[in-house]
Amino acid sequence: MSLGAESSLQSSSSSEDFAAFLDSELELASCDSSPNEGDVTNNEEIDPPQRSKRQKMEGFETSEDLETERLVKPIEEHIGTSTLGKNVICPPHPGFFKGLCIRCGQIEEDESGVAFGYIHKDLRLGNVEMARLRGADLKSLLHKKKLILILDLDHTLLNSTRLVDVISDEEYLLRQIDGMKDDPDRSLFRLDSMHMLTKLRPFVNNFLKEASSLFEMYIYTMAERSYAIEIAKLLDPGKVYFDSKVITQADCTQRHQKGLDVVLGAESLVVILDDTEVVWQRHKDNLIQMERYHFFASSCRQFGFNAKSLSELMKDERESDGALATVLKILKRTHQMFFDPALGSDVSTRDLLKGIRREILQGCKIVFSRVFPSNSLAQDQPIWKMAEQLGATCCTEVDPSVTHVISTDTGTQKAHWATQNKKFLVNPHWIEASNFLWQRQKEENFSISNLPSHTTVDCTAKAQESVQ
Question: Dihedral through CA 116, CA 118, CA 121, CA 122, nearest 10?
Answer without folding.
Answer: -30
